[in-house]
UniProtKB/TrEMBL annotation:
Xref: InterPro entries: Isoprenoid_synthase_dom_sf (IPR008949), Terpene_cyclase-like_2 (IPR034686)
Family note: Belongs to the terpene synthase family.
EC number: 4.2.3.-
Higher taxonomy: Bacteria, Bacillati, Actinomycetota, Actinomycetes, Pseudonocardiales
EC class: lyase
Keywords: Lyase, Magnesium, Metal-binding
Name of the protein in question: Terpene synthase
Length: 336
């Protein structure tokens, strides 16, 4: 008898939503990645289209304006293409190169607040980021831009940590993996983008309050762990250990098959914890900015689950030969 896939039983208490401009976003982002020069190979373009990052943006930011959903489709394209280079390509085994790219990214994100900020490198990732940032920065305050830039920096610092683990064959423990996963998954970055996409900004007292941090981290964990269970087969075929299922299995002496149901149980339990933390957050800060942010976390949790089930991104076979067909060496300035 075939054992039911536990991923099919993952539940979400929030309703599905989809931006009405989803079809426009799909056409737009397909054109943008080509014009930005970050997708060039025919195999890369086909794989990109199958992933449906515009559909992901429409499901996770369904209430933004049309300009916003087009921008978010482009952000997702950039984030996932960079993630492919970090996870599937040689860049993911070169902590020093990741640091060099991060320096240029950090410089790019200092504009428009620092007129002297000019990146040294000329990689596809940095050039495309310049376009994204020119469209994002005007929608936010200097304080938000600094917070966002810090979170992007933490993503690349965590990516260098993963690269170092790969070089030295280190499998992280569960606790450290969970903490770092919020950074390698760029989920703080994506949650930051709720604010300009919903025309709001959280005040410092909310951002600093433990009740907000508890809700945010719970939402981030649900999103990242959901990504892990759906991307498991792809990542394991590439020999990747940075996945909740693999980490749990390694720590507890279990196969991936036996660890997968445990990871799904963890997602369900963390979702229930998020609901509790959300209620506590709204009880303490029942304000319009917080309500808008909470709605953004809800659509992220639900939209991520729906997209993960629908996308073809994780259904393709993965091998070194296959990745060489779709990785773009010019994106990160290294040979993939």
């Amino acid at each position: 008898m075939t054992t039911p896939d536990p991923r099919a039983a993952l539940a979400c208490p929030f309703p599905a939503k989809l931006h009405p401009a989803v079809h426009t976003a799909r056409s737009h982002v397909d054109d943008w990645v080509v014009s930005a020069g970050i997708v060039r190979k025919p195999a890369s373009l086909a794989r990109f289209a199958n992933a449906d990052f515009a559909g992901f943006a429409a499901a996770t930011y369904p209430d933004t304006d049309v300009t916003g959903v087009l921008l978010m489709a482009d952000w997702f394209a950039w984030l996932f293409l960079v993630d492919d280079e970090l996870d599937d390509g040689i860049t993911g085994t070169r902590p020093d190169h990741i640091g060099a790219v991060l320096a240029d990214i950090a410089t790019t994100l200092r504009a428009p607040d620092d007129a002297s900020a000019v990146p040294v490198g000329n990689t596809g990732a940095v050039r495309a980021l310049g376009d994204l940032w020119a469209r994002t920065a005007p929608r936010a305050t200097p304080g938000w831009r600094r917070r966002f830039g810090a979170h992007v920096g933490e993503c690349f610092t965590a990516a260098a940590w993963e690269a170092n683990n790969r070089v030295h064959d280190v499998v992280p423990g569960e606790a450290v993996y969970v903490e770092r996963r919020r950074h390698t998954g760029a989920i703080y970055v994506c949650m930051d983008l709720i604010e300009p996409m919903r025309d709001t900004e959280l005040p410092d007292d909310v951002l600093a309050d433990p009740v907000f941090r508890d809700a945010l981290d719970a939402a981030c964990d649900v999103v990242c762990w959901t990504n892990d269970v759906f991307s498991l087969e792809k990542e394991r075929r590439l020999g990747e250990w940075h996945n909740l299922v693999a980490v749990v299995g390694h720590a507890r002496g279990l196969s991936d098959q036996d660890a997968l149901p445990l990871a799904c149980d963890m997602i369900d339990a963390r979702t229930a914890e998020y609901v509790e933390h959300e209620a506590a957050l709204l009880a303490e800060f029942d304000t319009e900015p917080v309500r808008r942010y909470v709605e953004g976390m809800r659509t992220w949790i639900r939209g991520n689950l729906d997209w993960s089930r629908a996308t073809h991104r994780y259904r393709e076979g993965a091998s070194d030969e296959h990745t060489s067909r779709y990785l773009e060496p010019s994106l990160m300035g290294g040979s993939s």
